[in-house]
User: Fold this.
Amino acid sequence: MLKDYADLIEKQIRKNSFGKTPRSLYEPIRYIMALGGKRLRPQLTCLSYSLYRNDLERIIPFATAVEAFHNFTLLHDDIMDKAPLRRGKPTVHEKWNVNTAILAGDVMLVRVYDMLLELPPDQLKEALMLFNRTAAEVCEGQQWDMEFETKKQVTEAQYISMIRLKTAVLLGFSLELGALLAGASPKDRKALYDFGVNVGIGFQLKDDLLDVFADQKKFGKQVGGDIIANKKTFLLIKALAKARGKDKTELNRWLQAKTFDKRKKVAAVTALYTRLNIRSLTEQKIESYFEKAFSSLHLFSSPEKAQKLIVFAKDIASRQK
Assistant:
């Protein structure tokens, strides 16, 4: 089932040129969209729609718009994070330059609106209102993420709130959009949105975990990138709270170091996380949010439909890249 969704989405992505000239503006868009990835968000839109209707191909362009918006955020995030890799390939600002990457991202967002304007007139206003709310929240989350870089102390609650905005609300929107287009009830739409948000928080926590402990060949991004950048992830927040004595001194030394060997820092901080049992604590937190996602489905109209969502979420929870 999910493979069918993915095939339809990839076919639609290949059809979208986004624009022709100047080639240097549109080629980076086609490049990032062709890099692949999990296509999680448009698949969620397809999945929620398919719970109610069988004419899936009708909404593939709108599911693809969700994926284009997601890639727009990645393109700009990579600039802000100075990330060298995206899905195992050079990021757009590395392959071209920062100015081109900014402009390419800007026009991507314009093209997302072009795609959404093809929505049925009776659903257009509500869909755009939901999208605009989500897009603003994603930007708010990114701003909090950047502010956390210079903030001396970030609490677990503040971090969860940030990833809810930056990552999770888009998953919730993806599911609600599919339900809206299928004519689902407000009750089902809310259950799907809440399910998506909690899956999204668990998904980002798993991403944080994989950034430290994943196999580089499988992960597709620079393993240890968060450690190198001193990003205040859930893992670092818990480590700062738990570290005592020599561990605390060593962790602070690495955090304060202005010049360092990247590989040595990643190895040292990873070893600290292991000693402090941070991996297990993070896995427990991930599991708690997937459980919240499952419990949000108690309001769902059909246990059979809910089971399809649970299978999908469990697959996400077990991912290794």
